[in-house]
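In this section we walk through a basic example: taking a raw amino acid sequence and producing a predicted 3D structure, encoded as discrete structure tokens. The instruction is simple. Fold the sequence below.
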Amino acid sequence: MGKIIAIANQKGGVGKTTTAVNLAAALGVLEKKVLLIDADPQANATSGLGIDVETVEVGTYQLLEHTSKANEAIIETDSPNLDLIPAHIDLVAIELELVDQDNRELMLKQATRNLKENYDYVIIDCAPSLGLLTLNALAAADSVIIPIQCEYFALEGLGKLLNTIKSVQKVHHKDLLIEGLLLTMYDSRLRLSNQVVDEVKKHFSDMVFDTIIQRNVRLSEAPSYGESIIKYDAASKGANNYLSLAEELINA
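The resulting token sequence is shown next.
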């Protein structure tokens, strides 16, 4: 039986999509069967794997509307062992469309309940907000990875996200776990980066992944080629970081 992991943080620019795409690709390279669900209207995880967003006809939007089944939305990618449920800009309308629905926070959970039988890992790339899309992802997930960038406002908003996770645990999903906090955009030359690492580890100790994602030019370049860092430059620091994270996750 597989595991569903949401990658969530309401702050933008913390490396959510970078982590979702590259962790999924790294798990695939390590011979795990992986499905990536793009639950962000910006659809960057979709384009980041080389899929033309404009051609998407069935994806996360139809899943949440329950007009299509999950297996109708799944497409293969060029990455080994990695499938994708893509997103499209129309996903931005889903929060308004679901607002009057009963159990609106559970739409994604209901649509994906059988996916764990076919995959070792299902990774959900969340939108940068604490709206209905993210609540759906958290309610559907077994656990959540929270990326935190090694910059000045790193811990800002983290309390709000942790409170949201607690309320999801209380109301919708008592077994939701925090898989870990992932430090991203780390630059060993900057004193601030090291201070943030120390601060996060001091406050959250065993909740923090040992792997730290370092700031890496190749990691920034890969999405513009529609490739994961593993495919774009397997020898890069970014590829090594995400392979290390994948191994840590598998061995947890």
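Looking at the output, two observations stand out. The longest strand covers residues 177-184. The two ends are 16 Å apart (CA to CA). In the next section we compare this with other chains.
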